[in-house]
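INTERNAL AUDIT FORM
Audit reference: QA-55
Scope: verify that the stored structure record matches its stored sequence.
Auditor: D.O.
Record contents follow.
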Amino acid sequence: MIDALISHIRKNVSEQDNLFIEKDKPVSSESFLKKFDQSCHLLTEAGIQKGDIVLLDRLDDFESIIYFLSLLNNNNIVFLCNRSKYHQFIVPYFDYFISNGLIIKNDQSEASLKTQLRNIFNKGSAGIILQTTGTTGNPKFIIHDFNKLLLKYRAKKAKTIYASIYSLDHIAGLDALFYSLFSLSCFIITDRNIEAFLKTIEKRVVEQISITPSFVNLVYFSNLYKKYNLKSVKTLILGSEYLSEMTIHYIQLIFGNNPKVLQKYGSTEFGSLPSLTNPENPQLISIDKDRCDYKIIKGCLHICSPSIMLGHISGKKIIIKKSPWFNTNDLIKKEDGWYKIIGKKEITINVGGNKVIPSEVEDILHQMPGISYVKIYPVTNPIVGQVVGADVITNQDESRELLIQRIRKFCINKMEIYKIPTVITLIKTPVVNERMKS
């Protein structure tokens, strides 16, 4: 599949001036192809053979993208992972690693584990392995046949100027990169620094952005968006988290030209699914049943897709996925023939046996005067197991005690008493993790 993509770019090389922009430096299609060919040659010189397992250590620059595409073209299995952070978990599994442009042989690998991993793949298949964190907090490494992940991408005529905040080790980052390449768009490798990101949008007249709802919130509360002309943005693609009405409202304030909002649904375990977003309410989606199947069991979405993972690595065990179905643990509600993802089952708060879905409490509190941001989460309690905690940003000058009183008064007739937050923290800006999620 990668050879088909590269052939597509070669055939249309005259139709696109810049295929990438990194640190304000344009990369033409000709330069991209030259770098790609050089990278393929370097892999051969280093002794990397088809089927070898290669760790790609850096994931956020043009050189990483070139090596990534070259490895896939060579039918390698590519570990997309931070080596220093996850060294103890992954060192037995790879033959080589690439770091800062250097190709280095791994002398600590274990032949039996590498053989087990290779045997999962069909002969000649390119693969990727992505890190994810389960509910235990321990890392899991998801194994994919990359050709199956690529099946949904098709060459498109609609070119655009595309920016994404995601790195390659994120399924949304891969989605953004390949949609851009197949459409021969200009892909901008962006900085996650808010001001640098906004400056790039203005200077490069960016038309399409892949972003998390939490990053939108960060941009809004920074107030930096007021310094820049962001009206070039026509489409925002949001994913990875619950999309609240509050965030949709902030999008209108930030970009000012009523951009189209698309909600992407996906997971590390099965990729990004083909779906449609309700044009009147971006919180609602429909999944294309012609290209994947789904069912809802006890409120949770189960997916059957050609792109389901082959298995995963946990410690020194390789666990093969035998069922074609995957339980996403995403709670879902049906509204007028569309679906709304309302949160993860494992993040449901258990207050003395009563279940609380954080997004439902957040949506009610966002209606409260003076409240501009709410994040609901569980807090351990020795009596009832858990209670509802809330991080709150208010635009009113009030004490925490007064805010608590207002919240309780506002909520008392709008939700069951066990859903009302009891641990409330005033914050000044949303808190996000390294994947730009809260």
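Auditor finding: record pair retrieved intact. The chain has a mean pLDDT of 90.
Action required: none
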